[in-house]
Design goal:
Shape: globular
Number of strands: 0
Number of helices: 3
Helix content: 25-40%
Radius of gyration: 13 Å
Largest sheet: none
Distance between the termini: 24 Å
Length: about 70
């Protein structure tokens, strides 16, 4: 996504089976590889992980996207 990915919008590279279409490929953006999952981030379920990632997106969204 050339201009970034807004919070709450799925990545353009996300496949229907929830895998990354460019994982391990040279065109994969560097910032994608910079995300290092932890036990806290992953939680005990897919729902817990998605909640954590949603909170991360909200916390790191530009102020204009948060209504500030």
């Amino acid at each position: 996504m050339p201009h970034g990915k807004p919070a709450g919008v799925p990545c353009a590279q996300l496949l229907p089976d929830m895998r990354c279409a460019v994982f391990g490929r040279p065109e994969r953006p560097a910032f994608c590889g910079g995300l290092r999952p932890s036990a806290e981030m992953c939680g005990e379920s897919r729902e817990a992980a998605l909640h954590w990632l949603t909170q991360l997106e909200v916390a790191t969204a530009p102020a204009s996207a948060r209504g500030a």
